[in-house]
Design brief:
Structural class: alpha+beta
Strand content: 25-35%
CATH class: Mainly Beta
Strand order of the largest sheet: 1-2-3-4-5-6-7-8
Number of helices: 3
Order of helices and strands: HHEEEEEHEEE
Number of domains: 1
Helix content: 10-25%
C-alpha cells in the first residue's frame, strides 16, 4: 500500500501544472524542461512595443535554459550566462556574456543589445499551459516579454 501511494504521489506531482511564483517556489527545471523559447515581442513600462527586439519586425532570438545556464541565439552574437531563482521565485539573470561579432545588419546588433537588456535583472515569470507553452517575463519596472516554446518534432 505504501509503495502504491508513493507511486501515485510521484506520478501526480509529475503531471501537475507547471509551478509559478504565484503557486509555489519554482525551480529552474520548469524553464529548462521546455528547452528553447523564441521571443515573440516585448513592451516597455508604458506598454509600448520595444521594436528593437524584433529586427525587421521578425522574431529572431531564442533562449535556452539548462540547469542554471542560459544561451541566447538568433542575432548577430551568441550570448550566455547564469540564472537563478530568488526567494520570491523570480528569475534572476545577473550577468550575460557575448561574442563581439560585427554584423552588416545593424538591426541584428541592436536586437542583441535590446534582448540582453530585457533579460538582465530579476523578473516575475509564468508559463501558460498551452501548446506550445508560452513564457511571460515581467520586470519590476514594467517591461514585459513574451516567448513561445520551440519543441523539436517527435522522432519517427
Amino acid at each position: 500500500m505504501t509503495l502504491s501511494l508513493l507511486v501515485l504521489v510521484a506520478f501526480g506531482s509529475a503531471c501537475a501544472p507547471t509551478a509559478t511564483q504565484a503557486d509555489a517556489p519554482a525551480v529552474p527545471d520548469a524553464l529548462s524542461a521546455v528547452g528553447r523559447w523564441k521571443l515573440q515581442g516585448a513592451t516597455d513600462s508604458q506598454g509600448q512595443p520595444i521594436a528593437a527586439v524584433l529586427p525587421d519586425g521578425t522574431p529572431k532570438h531564442g533562449i535556452a535554459f539548462n540547469d542554471g545556464s542560459l544561451a541566447i541565439r538568433g542575432g548577430c552574437n551568441q550570448m550566455g550566462g547564469r540564472y537563478t531563482m530568488d526567494a520570491q521565485g523570480r528569475l534572476v539573470v545577473s550577468e550575460l556574456q557575448s561574442t563581439l561579432m560585427a554584423c552588416a545588419n545593424k538591426a541584428l546588433m541592436d536586437a542583441d543589445s535590446a534582448v540582453a537588456g530585457l533579460l538582465q535583472g530579476a523578473s516575475a515569470w509564468r508559463i501558460a499551459e498551452s501548446y506550445p507553452e508560452q513564457l511571460f517575463l515581467e520586470h519590476a519596472d514594467g517591461r514585459r516579454s513574451h516567448w513561445v516554446a520551440e519543441r523539436l518534432p517527435p522522432s519517427p
